[in-house]
Write a structure and sequence with these properties.
6-stranded mixed beta sheet, Immunoglobulin-like, mainly beta, 2% helix, single chain, 5 domains
């Protein structure tokens, strides 16, 4: 198991190295009884102070190291880039002074300082260490700081807990606590850490874990009257944090109580403690408090996003927490409204249901919301309204549910180099239903420039939180009367006109500029085709006169609609896919090319139609997307002055509105 001790264990010791690497070149310079060799510098190593991180409801190691501690042994080891090495064990005087002097070559050094402790120097084992890269080629280096922590120290520790509890039915044969089960559980995955040769929980059937009476001297009627002593793995436990869990049972096996606590196991140290269990027998846990929901910034992916849920744990006897998730069809609801659905997640016996929902939760890799949990991350669907409640559960029952509390500014957490930001207040989770929705902008083969350095082609996507108010969609052009250049959406120099969307699958497309809903939205851009600039016609083609070319389309109830540099509105009632007719007066043969780019090249999606004669009727072309097409009409024709028929061309635009 890789121990995750930084910021977790009780004590870390800061060590300062003072390096003076200049003005030391004498072959016979003697300092503190040592000789400085040529091309070496002097390093003074000293213990400077301590860093303590103590948490509530945590059983800590018996030995606490602070700035007054004296280790049985301190050892400095390391290698240099050129292959030199150092191995300096502090002398007794150096240990007392917490300072030693070593000499190192002018090189780049990878150094480790290890602290040992135990009954004596001979039996001492590693308990803390720190690593440092020291560049001694820099003669200006005068101060190096080591931080000693349990990180990377694999020396086993040990645990011995005396559990004291009050049995209210001690004199009632069929109700008294007759059995106990206990174990250490890994916090990262809630799995039982082995406590015996058969890797099971320690039970009172084990001779080392028997119940015994306590002499009660207190006048408190709920003072502990029974005890048992728990040891783990024959006092050989990997360093780390564990959850100590203990269940209390009657002779028939009925669970009457549960208690848990975090146990810290430090390298080479013993965690010994008296654990006094509160009066919890036959009691359901206290209700959690201060439930809040925050967005995990940037977590939107594949139709989902992550929400960070946190609460205050107010009990010591919960076996797990139960999260109630409600989906709503309205942003504003009352107590009499009926939700779309209500589901509960988090009880340990329902792991299969929870596993996907709580994927990504930092506390429980198996998806449960176990003992002492105070946060989790959940997958939520984009475009859905949610609300949350939470309760604590044990074998005696479930507490009342705590409703979600509005976030405040101090709840937001800034991003770090390794973790995303958490936002609740600024995201709009102060009073609204929890939600996140997506707006997809189809640029209809165009380009959106939001600034000189930010542009998008094809599609642009925004993620929003609905807070009960209308929003304005992304602009496709500067506001009227503005001198701004951006934002600017264009397609082949055609300027942006409107965003379109379909309110329903069967409804006609309509324009949209504002939105007042929480559901996902898809819109597409339309452009002004009259701004089409001149096209380059290859030298082998001449230009057809505009009057010689006729282009019409039948779109359902409307026939012979001109489509040269025109918009075909397919959103009208009864409109169908267009049937085009192209005619070139006096032509021997016609070719027609539809392209989705404003050029006559083969780039993009094209439909080429060949015929013989002066007229081509290609029929319905399906599907034609809602955008502007470049249409090239080629005609084999003999004009006045030609000695034979040759190819001529005409280029124009057709815009399809859907």
């Amino acid at each position: 198991m890789k121990s995750k001790f930084r910021n977790l264990l009780l004590a870390a010791i800061a060590v300062t190295l003072f390096a003076g690497c200049s003005n030391i070149a004498s072959n016979d310079a003697v300092i503190m009884g040592g000789t400085i060799l040529p091309d070496q510098c002097l390093i003074t190593v000293g213990v400077a102070g301590t860093i303590n991180d103590v948490g509530a409801r945590i059983i800590n190691p018996t030995t606490v190291y602070d700035d007054t501690s004296v280790f049985q042994k301190l050892e400095l080891t390391g290698t240099s880039a050129k292959g030199a090495s150092v191995n300096h064990v502090f002398t007794a005087a150096e240990l007392t002074a917490k300072q030693a002097v070593v000499s190192l070559t002018y090189d780049k050094w990878y150094l480790t300082l290890t602290a040992y402790d135990g009954a004596d120097a001979a039996s001492a084992v590693p308990v803390l260490k720190g690593d440092y890269f020291a560049d001694l080629t820099n003669t200006a280096l005068t101060n190096i700081e080591f931080t000693l922590t349990p990180d990377g120290v694999d020396q086993a520790g040990s645990v011995e807990l005396t559990v004291k509890f009050f049995d209210p039915y001690k004199s009632v044969a069929d109700k008294k606590i007759d059995k106990c089960e206990a174990g250490l559980y890994k916090i990262d995955n809630n799995q039982l850490y082995a406590v015996g040769s058969n890797n099971t929980k320690m039970e009172t059937s084990d001779t080392a874990f028997v119940l015994s009476n306590l002499l009660v001297s207190s006048t408190d009627p709920t003072a502990p009257n029974t005890k048992c002593v728990f040891t783990a793995n024959n006092l050989d436990v990997e360093p780390g944090r564990y959850m100590f869990k203990i269940w209390f049972k009657t002779s028939s096996g009925r669970k009457t109580g549960f208690y848990s606590d975090v146990v810290v196991v430090a390298p080479g140290r013993k965690t010994v403690a008296d654990v006094t269990v509160p009066d919890i027998m036959d009691r359901i846990p206290e209700k959690p408090e201060n439930l809040k929901v925050l967005l995990v910034e940037g977590s939107e992916k594949n139709g989902f996003y992550k929400a960070h849920i946190k609460w205050n744990d107010k009990s010591t006897n919960e076996e797990s927490f139960v999260l109630k998730v409600t989906e709503w069809s309205a942003y504003t609801t009352t107590s009499t409204d009926t939700p779309v659905s209500t589901k509960t997640y988090g009880a340990e016996e329902d792991v299969a249901t929870n596993e996907y929902y709580f994927w990504g939760s930092d506390f429980r890799a198996d998806g449960t919301l176990g003992t002492s949990t105070t946060s989790c991350e959940v997958n939520l669907k984009l475009g859905v309204l949610y609300d949350f409640e939470i309760a604590a559960w044990n074998s005696c029952g479930i507490s009342d549910f705590e409703k979600r509390t509005a976030c405040v500014a101090s709840d937001d957490v800034a991003a770090t180099s390794s973790t995303p930001a958490l936002t609740g207040y600024t995201t709009g989770y102060a009073t609204s239903k929890v939600n996140r929705y997506k707006i997809d902008y189809d640029l209809s083969s165009g380009k959106l420039e939001k600034s000189a350095t930010e542009s998008y082609e094809g599609t642009y996507t925004e993620f929003k939180t609905y807070a009960g108010a209308e929003i304005t969609l992304q602009a496709g052009k500067p506001a009227a009367g503005s001198t701004d250049i951006y934002p600017k959406a264009t397609r082949n120099h055609n300027p942006f006109v409107d965003w379109y969307y379909k309110p329903s699958a069967t409804a006609a497309a309509t324009t949209i500029s504002t939105y007042n809903n929480w559901e996902n939205l898809s819109v597409w851009a339309s452009y002004d085709p009259t701004y089409i600039i001149s096209y380059t016609v290859a030298e082998e083609y001449g230009e057809l006169a505009d009057a010689d070319v006729t282009a019409t389309a039948d779109i359902g109830g409307t026939s012979a609609v001109n489509c040269k540099n025109a918009v075909l509105d397919l959103t009208a009632t009864g409109a169908t896919n267009p049937v085009f007719t192209f005619t070139v007066a006096g032509a021997q043969e016609i070719k027609v090319n539809f392209g989705d780019k404003a050029s006559r090249s083969a780039e993009g999606s094209t439909v080429e139609l060949d015929t013989t004669g002066s007229t081509v009727t290609p029929g319905a072309i399906d599907p034609l997307e809602g955008k502007t097409y470049c249409v090239t009409v080629l005609a084999l024709k003999q004009l006045t002055g030609d000695t034979a028929a040759r190819w001529y061309s005409k280029v124009f635009a057709v815009t399809i509105k859907r």
